[in-house]
Design a protein that fits this description.
The chain is α+β, with helices and mostly antiparallel strands. The chain folds into two domains: about 70 residues, no CATH class; about 190 residues, no CATH class. The protein has a four-stranded antiparallel sheet with strand order 1-2-3-4. β2 and β3 form a beta hairpin. The longest helix has 29 residues. The protein is globular. It starts with 8 loop residues before the first helix and ends with a helix.
């Protein structure tokens, strides 16, 4: 993306000042604080952290404030800040099965080990504006979870696995090199590890539209939400000087596993396959959409024909990044005087040639 243009320096400086004035708004209205954004616009903060690839609530809240609520601009700011940070290495893979659950639901089984936990959700609220929110005040406290809820909440898809009806998740190769999309350029064909990294950083609206398209027949499969869970998961790291794993903190995550029927092949019997989504904080829409598109992108791996946009790896991965897409679109606002003059002269010449041919055709007819 172009970030600097020569000329008009005074105009650019004034544009910065005007932007700051617009961001502040009426000085008679109390200024919104970063802590307020973090605590009261938490889902917006979660999205910025997810697509910005950096788990830092205060920084994401600050970016939202600086961007005046423009989510893609805030994501850009977080990614730019991320590139300046030191890198100490990679954390140990997290065990989401050990999540301290705040929300956990399944659309495939009513009774699941550990129980269903609705948690904080808009799912069962009436979509009506609540005027009482304008008055402020503390909300009515929620009741605590029943004491008999099982603390152990194994993955729901394991129930299908016990019958041999779910494809094996695979333990993976501990020595296999995992790609890092934040350090290496995207290349095709891409393995699933890079595809998932691309999807989690992708624009929520774009991924949502692709996921929706798979539900409307533009890919082969009708998915069910096997499990959606949200809560805190421990993060561990192995420092070189210690040589063993230590817990360094925890992050809030939303994880989604979609279940899709698979008719089988010459090597694999009919069974269910999975699509996977993961995001920071409470980002259910993103995690679900990601899981739908992940499954669609596995078409080649499962021997299915690629017939829909969501199954086209290069199309999906090349257009999902909101920061890259924004940069390319918004550069059209910058001066293109020379390019346009060249096209203008070309169109004038083609028009003159076309008019000359029409005139010649008319004379011949006479």
């Amino acid at each position: 993306m172009y970030v600097a243009v020569k000329g008009g320096q005074q105009a650019i400086a004034n544009a910065h000042k005007l932007s700051a004035e617009e961001r502040r708004g009426n000085p008679d209205v109390p200024e919104i604080g970063v802590d307020q954004i973090d605590q009261q616009l938490s889902i917006a903060v979660d999205r910025v952290m997810t697509e910005g690839s950096l788990y830092d609530r205060q920084l994401a809240a600050l970016a939202i404030k600086q961007a005046r609520g423009d989510m893609i601009e805030a994501i850009f700011l977080v990614r730019a800040s991320r590139t300046t940070l030191p890198r100490f290495g990679y954390s140990v893979p997290m065990e989401t099965s050990d999540m301290a659950i705040r929300r956990r639901i399944s659309a495939t089984f009513k009774d699941i080990p550990g129980g269903q936990v609705l948690g904080p959700t808009f799912d069962y609220q009436h979509r009506l504006i609540d005027p009482a929110l304008a008055e402020g005040g503390a909300p009515e406290p929620a009741e605590t979870a029943p004491a008999d809820v099982d603390a152990q909440s194994p993955k729901v898809l394991g129930l299908l696995g016990q019958e041999g009806l779910m494809e094996a998740a695979g333990d993976g190769d501990d020595d296999a090199e995992i790609g890092d999309l934040t350090r290496d350029p995207l290349d095709f064909p891409a393995d699933r590890d890079l595809r998932l990294q691309n999807l989690v950083r992708g624009d929520e609206g774009f991924i949502l539209s692709l996921g929706y398209s798979t539900q409307r027949g533009y890919a082969r499969g009708h998915a069910f939400a096997g499990e959606i869970r949200m809560g805190e998961v421990a993060v561990s790291f192995v420092p070189e000087e210690l040589g063993f794993e230590i817990e360094i903190g925890e992050v809030a995550l939303t994880e989604c596993e979609m279940v899709t029927q698979f008719k089988g092949s010459s090597k694999v019997p009919p069974q269910f396959t999975r699509g996977y989504g993961l995001a920071f904080g409470q980002c259910e829409r993103k995690a679900m959409s990601m899981a739908l598109v992940d499954r669609a992108l596995r078409a080649g791996e499962l021997g299915e024909d690629r017939v829909a946009p969501a199954q086209d790896e290069e199309f999906v991965m090349s257009h999902s990044d909101s920061v890259e897409a924004t940069g390319f679109v918004e550069h059209l606002k910058l001066p293109h005087y020379v390019d346009f003059q060249a096209e203008l002269e070309l169109v004038r010449r083609m028009r003159a040639e076309a008019e000359g041919k029409q005139a010649g055709t008319g004379e011949a007819a006479e």
